[in-house]
Amino acid sequence: SLFKPKLVTPLPFSTYVSRIYLMKLKEDDDACREALRSGNLMLFHKLAPLVRRNKHGVCQSPRITTPVEQILEKLGQDKQLVNEAVLMSSTESNEPQFCLDVDLQQNGMEMLCGGVFMDIRKAFLMLRTPDASMVAKGQALLRWHQTHGFCSATGHPTVRNQSGSQRVCPNSGITYYPQMAPVVMALVSDGSRCLLARQSTFPPGMYSALAGFCDVETMEEALRRELAEEVGLEVETLQYSASQHWPFPQTSFLVACHATISPDKTELSVDKAELEDARWFSLEEIQAALQMKTPPLNRRSELPGFWVPPAVAVARRLIQEWADQQQ
Ligand SMILES: NC(=O)C1=CN([C@@H]2O[C@H](COP(=O)(O)OP(=O)(O)OC[C@H]3O[C@@H](n4cnc5c(N)ncnc54)[C@H](O)[C@@H]3O)[C@@H](O)[C@H]2O)C=CC1
Ligand SMILES: [Mg+2]
């Protein structure tokens, strides 16, 4: 097979035990309602996450612990709205955590919660990785509920369980679960250089690894097809590195790999409809880019001609791993 196996570290035991508790919350509506009273909430307004700066100026996604019913009552809203919260299942300390989208007075909410609702693209560049990942997860779950209110077979309204882990159509009996769109991402190496590309929608100067949505096919097939289509290359080997849920354009599941091609077949034929540019980069160029803070704005808010994605993107991990392997 094209794939080389890789060992993945399993969860520590303590994490495993609290996962069992969270599994119970997914299935037991009463236990979940109870947990919602004592748990914490990540708030969104029309899918924009609440963001706040702490006293050190660090941007955070705050977890609201004041009973949200009180906030809703102060705004003159129905406090039952809190039951629309969705269980997110895991914080780093494995406490039950929920997310809730409020489509109410934005200013009033911001004042009572002490933060601002920020577009997720902007929030992603400002938040640290664990917060950014949780915000992405919350937004994905909330968006899924907002777009799956009806059965696609019968058109009947679907009914959610308390945790929000599923929606059922009482008419057809079909159960719907939150979904992600699988994407294969590859950092291609020819042995001494690596291939990065940019789409016209990326911030100026940013180059990243190649990626593409999987059709109904294996990842190996998707990668072969994507590399042939986008840059005209033939992949030789593939090694799994890591995976990531990615919120752009919405709810992708990125499987990130290292790929190699033959060093005597490196000529690129770039699909200009998909990519603005694709180029081979030397180790020196990559090392210089990895030294920059991101986004690397100078004093006049200008970006350099070449930089790589921030740590929140799994693409950067691939690039860092490739650079480390070249030493
Ligand atoms: N973290 C990172 O550094 C990077 C992340 N990405 C992510 O990888 C994913 C794939 O990126 P692209 O190169 O744009 O994909 P792509 O190369 O498959 O091209 C996008 C096209 O695929 C089609 N498509 C098929 N299935 C789709 C689906 N489920 N959702 C949307 N479009 C679908 C559409 O016609 C769309 O225009 C996106 O989520 C993107 O945000 C891409 C590059 C870098
Ligand atoms: Mg692509």
TrEMBL record:
Keyword annotations of the record: Hydrolase, Magnesium, Metal-binding, NAD
UniProt keyword annotation of Metal-binding present: yes
Cofactor(s) listed in the protein's UniProt record: Mg(2+)
InterPro entries: NADH_PPase-like_N, NudC-like_C, NUDIX_hydrolase-like_dom_sf, NUDIX_hydrolase_dom, Znr_NADH_PPase
UniProt-listed Enzyme Commission number(s): 3.6.1.22
GO molecular function, one term: hydrolase activity
Domain called Nudix hydrolase: residue spans: 178-303
Signal peptide from the UniProt entry: none
A Pfam family hit: NUDIX-like
Superkingdom, taxonomy of origin: Eukaryota
Catalytic activity: NADH + H2O = reduced beta-nicotinamide D-ribonucleotide + AMP + 2 H(+); NADPH + H2O = reduced beta-nicotinamide D-ribonucleotide + adenosine 2',5'-bisphosphate + 2 H(+); NAD(+) + H2O = beta-nicotinamide D-ribonucleotide + AMP + 2 H(+)
Enzyme type, top EC level: hydrolase
Classification via NCBIfam families: PRK00241.1 (NF001299)
Protein's name according to its UniProt entry: NAD(+) diphosphatase
Protein source organism: Astyanax mexicanus (Blind cave fish)
